[in-house]
Amino acid sequence: MQIWVDADACPKLIKDVLFRAAERTKITVTLVANHSLQTPPSRYIKLLQVSSGFDVADNEIVKRLNVDDLVITGDIPLAYEVINKGGHAINPRGERYTVANIKERLQMRDLMESLRSSGIDTGGFAALNSRDVQAFANQLDRFLAQQKVAKPV
Q1: In Å, what is the CA distance from 48 to each residue of 8, 35, 64, 71?
Q2: Of all helices (H) and strands (E), which one includes residue 128?
Q3: Given this model, what pLDDT does residue 151 score?
Q4: Could you read off the pLDDT of 121-149 as tens digits, one per residue?
Q5: Which string of DSSP letters, residue by residue, matches 14-77?
């Protein structure tokens, strides 16, 4: 198992949590982005730089994803593809996308997109705060602990 990060839009505080988790668990974290990013020196942290373009990073993640890999993304269509391919997805606010909730999240996203395109101001997400970062860290820890229990050593 490895962790893939939709890194172009991933907040720095979330990347920092992931970097610490990579060192602690010795699980590879690969950031996929269309621009160069700074990462700490580590054998468990990698950067995959892809060309610019719509969904190029998302498509690369889906292409390289293996069953049971984890993807960190706020992109619901990407999370939907990950779930359908047998992977797992968590957003930067700590919500885990699952088979049980991903279709509902996708429908809500499509509805909000439709409202925005018709000129309705739907607002946006509030800025990431310390509770969001803690919720993400807790969800990540729960997921990693479940994976450890699920896989015999």
Answers
A1: 11, 9, 11, 14
A2: none
A3: 58
A4: 767 667 899 999 999 999 999 999 998 76
A5: HHHHHHHHHHHHT--EEEEESS-----S-TTEEEEE--SSTTHHHHHHHHH--TT-EEE-S-HH
Q: Is the pLDDT of residue 107 over 90?
A: no
Q: What pLDDT is attached to residue 149?
A: 63
Neighbours of 71 (CB within 10 A): 27
Does residue 68 contact residue 87 with C-beta atoms inside 8 Å? Answer: yes
Residue 56's nearest CA partner among 70, 69, 75, 84 is: 75
pLDDT in tens, 19-67: 999 999 999 999 999 999 999 999 999 999 999 998 999 999 999 999 9
What is the rounded CA–CA span in Å between residue 14 and residue 17? 5
Q: Classify 114 in phi/psi space as left (phi over 0), alpha (psi -120 to 50) or beta.
A: alpha
61 φψ region: left (φ > 0), alpha (ψ -120 to 50), beta (else): alpha
- The C-alpha angle 103, 95, 97, rounded to 5 degrees, equals 30
